[in-house]
Design a protein that fits this description.
CATH topology of the largest domain: Cyclophilin
Order of helices and strands: EEHEEHEHHEEEEEEEE
Number of strands: 13
Shape: elongated
Helix content: 10-25%
Number of helices: 4
Distance between the termini: 57 Å
Structural class: alpha+beta
Number of domains: 2
Largest sheet: 4 strands, antiparallel
CATH architecture of the largest domain: Beta Barrel
Length: 218
């Protein structure tokens, strides 16, 4: 029996002469993220591809222009994207303890019309998916966030966010692995180390992993 095909549409955009980005969609969606991971894995096996980096619903590809043209690689990507990915094995599950005492917790609750306790309960309810790793070493974009917690980013970013801060913005949540600037709302903190420079890969989370937050008292 021939492999089942998908109707997913892929949009190809050039990134200079030796790279392109393949977009599988625009919404934060676990099924599309699974397809992006499978597409990147298939592209990494090609001789003409140097690197394939997974995004939330996209893959950024750098290639050897002496071996393949932009148009030919785009056509190959479209063919690969029509193949249904293998049945997905659940990503590793990480249970992350959180002290919910972030400096934005009360403001988040007020903006959403709920209590701080409800923010904590809502944030800890889902099992989140790690859609991609990026921004800084060890950072994972986790989601989707419950609809009741969706807020835009802070109007004025902080110049320094402490490492371990648990934050929300848009339809996503995340943990700052290092002390960096940031514009997300800080609702708690964890002592779990996310950036592991002596490990390979050096990130605790990987694309496709699952993350469950639970509240603790300090």
């Amino acid at each position: 029996m021939p492999p089942r095909r998908s109707t997913v549409r892929v949009h190809i955009h050039p990134l200079g002469d030796t790279a392109l980005i393949a977009e599988l969609g625009t919404r934060l969606d676990s099924a599309l993220n699974t397809r992006a991971i499978a597409l990147a894995a298939a592209l990494k096996k090609r001789r003409d591809v140097h690197q394939a980096v997974v995004g939330a619903v996209s893959v950024t590809v750098s290639f050897d222009p002496d071996l393949i043209s932009h148009d030919a690689l785009g056509a190959a990507i479209r063919r690969l994207a029509t193949k249904r990915p293998p049945i997905e094995e659940p990503g590793r599950l990480h249970r992350i303890p959180v002290v919910y005492d972030g400096p934005d917790l009360n403001q988040v609750a007020s903006s959403l019309g709920v209590t701080p306790r409800q923010v904590i309960e809502l944030h800890g309810r889902p099992i989140y998916r790690a859609f991609l790793i990026g921004f800084v070493p060890g950072w994972a974009y986790l989601g989707p966030l419950p609809d009741e917690l969706v807020l835009p980013r802070r109007p004025v970013p902080r110049t320094l966010v402490p490492a371990g801060s648990v934050a929300i913005a848009g339809r996503q949540t995340g943990i700052y692995p290092l002390a960096t600037p940031g514009g997300w709302h800080l609702i708690g903190r964890t002592s779990v180390r996310l950036f592991l420079p002596d490990s390979d890969p050096p990130s605790l989370f990987r694309a496709g992993d699952r993350v469950k937050f639970f509240a603790i008292q300090e």
